[in-house]
Specification:
The chain is mostly beta strands. 2% of the residues lie in helices and 43% in strands. It contains 1 helix and 28 strands. The protein has a 24-stranded mixed sheet that branches. The protein has a two-stranded antiparallel sheet with strand order 19-20. Strands 27-28 form a two-stranded antiparallel sheet. Strand 1 and strand 2 form a beta hairpin. The longest helix has 6 residues.
């Protein structure tokens, strides 16, 4: 928690500047050095805990981190967060209200924010739930090192975004994101993204949802003298291979491009919810589903047969049309699903191999 000085004023962390150039401060504190958190006892965080430049926070398997209201974690430029859980000893990030009534309530804490210049961040076997934004990842790293790697990660019940990348480099395998008030995934302002055997299922029911489960654009909107100014960046890669994108709306992925920029994307061997009942996107070249270079071997508007979206159980049942339809070459690079089940020789689309439903 933030310490108080002699005058009783708590420590703060500067999150950025507002449109008038004034610092935006929140109660928070920085870790002093390289730090390791273990599973010996749960951690409870008040305010924002920051990883300073040049330092690493290592969170070991089985650790549990609870965040108070308006609290979160951030990594500064040159800082690194590594959370290395294992199957059966996942790392859990959630709120500090442990009563059963709060087990699936979104918005109980803020976010995990990997700020511009943060690099080498890796999350493996991690569960993030019940916050405002699951993860924010900013800026491309130098070279080919991803801003963020996600392996066997689950993100549930966020009031806005599950994963928000802003001109970031994100690599994800066996990622599941579900029930988000805005979008499960937003690849914003360009960048570089790769999602393999990942499931995005947005069945948010707490309020009206205006955006699809997956949103991909290459621009940002800023306020300058009270007016909106749009600035564009290149989208170097946005690959979705052996994935599922589904939800409660008829269209669950949206592509937005500023002309005259690089804008590369592919959907391969994936189940995609895109039922353009009003022909709103008819003739739009971004949605040329006959283009085999961009949309090979996909299933549109098929039956996913999720076990239970209300309880965030995004395993698929025996009626799923994605069974055995994943690309086996790609599956061979991620041979186990999120729970450790073997995919080969007949890999299913999404983060899980199918199971038999039990009534």
């Amino acid at each position: 928690y933030p310490q108080k000085d002699a005058e009783g004023i708590k420590e703060t962390i500067v999150l950025g500047q507002d449109e008038n150039g004034k610092d935006i401060e929140v109660e928070g504190f920085y870790l002093k050095d390289n730090t390791t958190w273990t599973k010996e006892k749960p951690y409870v965080v008040y305010g924002f805990v920051g990883v300073p430049e040049g330092k690493t926070l290592m969170v070991e398997k089985g650790a549990r981190v609870h965040f108070h209201k308006n609290s979160g974690m951030l990594a500064d430029k040159g800082a690194t967060v590594k959370m290395l859980g294992e199957i059966g000893e996942e790392i859990v990030l959630e709120g500090d209200r442990l009563e059963p009534a709060y087990s699936n309530i979104a918005g109980q804490w803020s976010t995990l924010w990997l700020r511009s210049g943060s690099t080498g961040n890796v999350l493996r076997n991690v569960i993030i739930r019940n916050n405002e934004i699951g993860i924010i990842a900013d800026s491309l790293s130098n070279g080919n090192i991803p801003t963020l790697e996600l392996h066997d990660v689950q993100i549930y019940n966020t009031t806005t975004f599950g994963l928000l990348g802003r001109y970031a480099h994100i690599l994800a395998e066996n990622l599941v994101i579900g029930n988000n008030g805005t979008s499960s995934l937003a690849c914003s302002n360009g960048g570089k993204y790769s999602f393999v055997h990942s499931t995005f299922g947005n069945f948010w029911s707490k309020s009206l949802r205006q955006y699809p489960a997956v949103l991909i654009n290459n621009f940002k909107v800023s306020k300058v003298n009270g007016s909106d100014v749009i600035s564009a960046s290149n989208l170097y890669q946005a690959d979705f291979i052996n994935c599922i994108i589904d939800g409660s709306q008829s269209i669950e992925f949206l592509l937005e491009k500023v002309e005259g920029t690089v804008y590369k994307y592919r959907f391969v061997n994936s189940m995609l919810r895109f039922n353009d009942v009003n022909n709103k996107f008819k003739g739009n070249p971004l949605y040329d589903f006959e283009d085999a270079d961009v949309y090979p071997n996909n299933i549109f508007n098929g039956t996913t047969d999720f076990i239970n979206t209300v309880t965030n159980d995004y395993r698929i049942g025996e009626k799923s049309e994605g069974i055995g339809k994943a690309d086996p070459v790609t599956a061979g690079k991620v041979p186990q699903d999120l729970l450790g089940a073997m995919r080969l020789p007949a890999p299913d689309m999404g983060a899980y191999q199918h199971i038999k439903k039990v009534n």
